[in-house]
């Protein structure tokens, strides 16, 4: 009788132990999910705070930050070169590859492209910038004039300037040479005329003229005979 009760108690105890183990495992998974949810909530909050900070920053903040980091690297490199007794510009040139040098040279050439004529003010400004780039100041002459005239070299609203300046012969020759070069260039320039006065007028406005030119370019060889017959009045 006692052995039978032990056999009945054995499976019941095993089932209870299995149920307790399964409950413990579920509780453990629940705690893990709870911890992951809290961690995700913290990360989302941090991301919202960071995004709010980024939105409050200026629009070009990333470019400014990259520029400042680059300047700091350059300053550190200069200090390292100075500590080693090396020339920073020479070291920088040695580190530039041939491909980068060619790319920068092409970029420099595209920096001031000729955008054509927009208005007279822009054309005058480009001419002024071109002429000023050609000027090479004579610093020795400037120092001599500064010693000779002193404060009078820097005029004010009360200074009398008319008739006081006598240009040098070299300056006059340089101006004459530049004017002759401009005249020669202007003589070679031929203004492109939008209309040919001798051509037949087969359009009613500028837009129609462009359309007729395009049609003539694509279909002119097919419609030449029809056009001649219409002009002669012999078209069927």
Secondary structure topology:
Elements: H1 2-56, H2 61-84, H3 88-95, H4 98-109, H5 120-134, H6 139-149, H7 169-188, H8 206-232
3D architecture notes:
The protein contains eight helices and no strands. The termini are far apart. It has 236 residues and is an all-alpha fold. The model has no long low-confidence stretch (mean pLDDT 80). The chain has a domain at 72-110. The radius of gyration is 43 Å and the shape is flat.
Going by helix content, strand content and strand pairing, the class is mainly alpha
Count of runs of 4 or more consecutive helical residues: 8
Strand content: under 5%
Look at the structure and give the mean pLDDT.
80
Number of strands: 0
Ranges where pLDDT stays below 50 over 5 or more residues in a row are none
Overall morphology: flat
How can the largest sheet be summarized? none
Distance N to C terminus: 129 Å
Radius of gyration: 43 Å
Which characteristics define this entry?
236 residues, mainly alpha, spliceosome, mRNA splicing
């Amino acid at each position: 009788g006692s052995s039978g009760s032990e056999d009945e108690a054995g499976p019941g105890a095993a089932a209870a132990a299995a149920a307790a183990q399964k409950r413990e495992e579920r509780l453990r998974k629940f705690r893990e999910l709870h911890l992951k949810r809290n961690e995700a909530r913290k990360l989302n909050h941090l991301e919202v705070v960071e995004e709010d900070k980024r939105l409050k920053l200026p629009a070009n903040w990333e470019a400014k930050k990259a520029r400042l980091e680059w300047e700091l690297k350059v300053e550190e490199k200069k200090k390292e070169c100075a500590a080693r007794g090396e020339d920073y510009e020479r070291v920088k040139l040695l580190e530039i590859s041939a491909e980068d040098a060619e790319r920068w040279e092409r970029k420099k050439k595209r920096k001031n492209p000729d955008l054509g004529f927009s208005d007279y003010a822009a054309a005058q400004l480009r001419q002024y910038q071109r002429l000023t780039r050609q000027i090479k100041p004579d610093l020795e002459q400037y120092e001599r004039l500064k010693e000779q005239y002193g404060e009078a070299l820097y005029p004010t609203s009360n200074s009398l300037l008319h008739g006081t300046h006598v240009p040098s012969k070299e300056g006059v020759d340089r101006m004459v040479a530049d004017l002759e070069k401009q005249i020669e260039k202007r003589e070679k320039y031929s203004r492109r005329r939008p209309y040919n006065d001798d051509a037949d007028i087969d359009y009613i406005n500028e837009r129609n003229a462009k359309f007729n030119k395009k049609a003539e370019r694509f279909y002119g060889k097919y419609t030449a005979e029809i056009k001649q017959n219409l002009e002669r009045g012999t078209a069927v």
